Fold this sequence. Notes:
By secondary structure, the protein is α+β, with helices and mostly antiparallel strands. The protein is built from five helices and 34 strands. It has helices spanning about 1-15, 40-45, 340-360, 370-415, 530, and strands at about 20, 25, 30-35, 50, 65, 70-75, 80-85, 90-95, 105-110, 120-130, 135-140, 145-150, 160-170, 180-185, 190-195, 200-210, 220-225, 235-240, 245-250, 265-275, 280, 285-290, 295-300, 305-315, 320-325, 325-330, 425-430, 435-440, 450-460, 470-475, 480-485, 490-495, 500, 510.
Amino acid sequence: MRFITLCCYLVFWVNTGYVSANPIIATVGTYVTLRCKYDAGYYGRLPFCWGRGHIPKSGCGNEVIKSDGTKLLSRLSERYFLTGDLAVGEAFLTIKEVQESDSGIYGCRIDIPGWFNDQKYEVTLTVNPGRPFPIKVETREVRERTLTVRWTPPFDGGRPITAYKVALKYKYASWDTAKITEVAQTHLIQVTLVDLRPAKTYNVRMFAVNSVGMSEASNVLIFTTKEAAPEGPPVDVQLQALSSYSIKVIWKPPNVELRNGVLRSYIISYREYDRVALQFQKLQQLSVTATREEESTILTNLNPSTQYSVLVQAKTNAGAGPASTTSFCSTLDEVKETTAATTLLSLTTASNKLTQYTTLTNVKETTPATTLLSSTAASTKLMQTTTLTNAHTTSTGTISTSTVRERSTLQSTHLTTVPPDPPVVGLKEVINNTISLFWTPGFEGNSPITGFYLEYKAANASWDYTKAIVDFSSNETDATIIEINPSTYNIRMFAKNSMGTSKASNVLIVTIEDRGQQQSNFSTTVTTITQSS
């Protein structure tokens, strides 16, 4: 009896058709296909189902999808769908964007007619967290020295994103030379890179990082910063006096790295020195088209034996750069030649002047008629003078009334033209090469604030040589910028409305040091207008 029972168990095991496959390991966010197949050519199309967990005695436990062999009958969610060719018996289950929670045992049952004939297939799926998906990054704004980029946070791979990395390089350089900045503020979707060079072409790409690893590189942005005025003056300026009335000016362009774009022209400024007044006269300028690596021009119509000062400036489409060191040169002395013809002409001129003098000496005596005419003319002039005086008085009264009206209008206009007060700028944090700041708008004046802009420069430079200007909309009150060169910088802001621009805000002093040693200092200098607001 025991032998018969054992045989029955063996027969049951053979007829149940269990098949177990090797485990499948997948990564969070990917598509996974679980395969199950029967001989549709022999059986025809058969019903089947997929469920989670071990296959029960009938049907599918925790059923996720079901088919009659020709079409889909039901499914637990849209993440589950059938793939493969049903006509040949491919009952494949594909799971879309798997999660760690999808890990476990999956069972497939093929409903074959007859007792204990169903074909059963089990597979174990393991879903592990993975690296974040690549980022899609886009350009928002390009200026002379700044780039603002924006991105959409990618799928995190099953683990929270812990940082973003921004890689920047010159277009034709290798990515091995790229400067990489880590952005630890994972809530950000936009940053501004500063301290770029004008008229240069760069490449930018980004990465997302989580506890598993770093994503593949994003798409690559290729952009060229706008031109700026040259930073350096023309060099090797030389002056040469050609004659009593002309001076030749020779120079070379600024250093290539300081040109900040294509040089279009040069401005030659010159003026003469007045030896009597001991000062230089009014400045005169001459424009010369930029054509080659050594330029020259000739200043003409000058005065002889006179000293001139000369300055040269290079110019791009964005403006003129600094002037060269002042150079001085004097025109040649004027040399007068004395000839026989000149001597004869002088004698003739002297004879003519003597004759004129003799004629003028014999002046006729004044007659009574002449005296009467003079008296009449004087009377007429007196009447004209009186009329003009009265006209002047009347005119003066009219001008005074008009002036009062104009002053009243100007005062009224002045009272209604009120620009906004400057914002108050604060520093959130400095992490690696990223600077996070915020600002509080002041009194908006007589018109709503339409925007803000930030000025950014090296601490030892003048505000006239601002490194970057970044615009913000009226509803923005914070920003993050990336500084690629460690140093100390000054940051200030302005508010704008339709009436004008505010005065400068307080100044932030921020120091970017080598990685791992970043620190920042905040200046508490606040303008008078900010205090009053």
